[in-house]
Fold each of these.
Amino acid sequence: MALLKQLTPVIVAEAVEPGIAFWVDRLGFKLTNQVPGPEGKLIFASAERDGIEVMYQTRASVVEEQPGMARELDGHSVALFITVEDLDEVERAVAGAPVVKARHKTFYGSTEIYVREPAGNTVGFAQF
């Protein structure tokens, strides 16, 4: 079995730009890749910071490449869990994003906050 090295989520969304902006503008990620579609809007983009990478791809482009995926994408979602050094700083950065679960302490020793990113997925940030 090969050693696993990294997990990079590909978030399928109606539009790429709002999701990428969440990571770049609020959390200081760097835009590392972008693919415009025929109308000039992005159909794919990725952003990275400190070894964490997120990718966004439009639902339409996924279905265009793989028509059989249309039904698979209905109602899908992902929840991301990210360990951070300074939850106060992250909480300031995501201020205004819809809160899924307010800042709280857990039984396993972390303090966490969960917000919704623009594609509707939950992003949890935890400080241990």
Amino acid sequence: MSRAFFSLYFLIVLSIVTLGWGLDRLWERYMPAETIGDVRILQIQDFADSALLARISSGEQIAFDDEQGKSYLYQKLHNQPLVLAIEHSPPPSPWMEITLGFIFYLAIAIAIFCWIWPLSRDLSKLERHTRTLGTESAEPRVSLPPQSAAHSLAAAFNRMADRISYLLNIQREMTNAVSHELRTPLARMKFALEMALDSKDLTQIKSRLGGIKQDVTEMDELVNQLLNYANFDQSNPTLDWKRGDMKSLVQEIVQRLTAEDTEQKVQPHVQLQVINQGCHSRFYCDWHLMERAVLNLIQNALRHCRTELSITIEQAEHYFVVVVDDDGVGIPETSRTEVFESFVRLRNAGEGQTSGFGLGLTIVRRIMQWHHGEVTASESPLGGARFTLRWPDSEPESI
């Protein structure tokens, strides 16, 4: 707003000053100011034989043009037999003044039009993009030059369009994923119910009901994952930055997850390594969010590892690092970026269909973005996958 105001203001001021100076020079060149020529004193008797004598004698001011085209003003002096004769140039014709005034206001209008037209063109372009926003025919972005008065508006529009496009993609992905994930357990539940109704064997009925219970648990987990994902799908949350002990947090998460995983026959060996042992309690982050990120990575590693899992935490001079390694089948190099997209689950040889719903790593990536950091996937020295959390020590000056 201020940029448009000042640009229009300076344009009008500059136009007025420039036009005023130019028209003033033009006026002086072609319409010189009224000037006074010779001044003479005449005797009243010089007009004795003239028809003007009576009018002059009465004190009337008379304008007169002689044979040479010169203009004179005659005025009798009070109580004196004398007449004052003044030669003068005629007043300028009014048409010149009218013409110059018309040129002035027309030039101001043209200057304002030259300022308004690019703005109107850019706003019309924004309007066209707005009409098609969210449709298949929508153009990707609005491109306006930096000098445009609507450039900041176009930048805000592009951010909004990117956000809407992202939300629409998420909606489509969620719709497809939910329909697929719910259809499978529902089909199993229908089949189990039909088998249970047709069976008279109490043991078989209990087995069918147990399968239905497992499907209900899976559906409940999907709903919880979707709710968690929706809660984390914010643009700019306010983080509660605090100092804390990352080693204690990791140990508590590992203990909790291994205690909950009662189905796994062989408990993997979990190794925790701390680099810069004396500084491990100085990690700085939003601990509620970082706990979710670390939990998702360790949970993912426990799901895919065979016998060994390694966690390394490190505090460097200006950043923090948490590394989770497993000895599973790993992630193909071509899929190490794709794996962080929502609802993406990789099918690896020897594993069949992977468990989970493809939202855990997406949440981790979003949490690291909020911490101005990153999460990356690579090959682990253990032979499986390595996930690395890295974020800066952006401690405020007041801390």
Amino acid sequence: MKQLALVLAILGTAGAWVADLLLLGVPAFRNGWWTLALFALPAALLVLGWGGEENKKLRTGAAIFFVVLLGGWIGLRFSGKLPDAAPAVAVGDRAPDFMLKNQDGKNVRLSDLTDDGRVVLIFFRGKT
């Protein structure tokens, strides 16, 4: 059982990195320290798999893997080498062209609407 917990700790640590890298593409989560919580499950599995004389190599390897990947995650946050956020649009700047679905579910580009003049966008929070 402890061996399974250690293997799951290794997989969970790698999974935390993958999940964090996927979330870096989402502006709301970029550079967020809250994603450190993704390492809580692998840490708990590492603690569950600890103890006993058997599986010393697996236990040591899982601990080193966890510490190295967690250290790399923290180092990435401090290095400032994370992908830049989407460029902000300042007041008076031209909005970048994008495409969204309208209330009828049809794709509409901003550039299609600007042919008729100025555009006011209103976003309603709700179901899609």
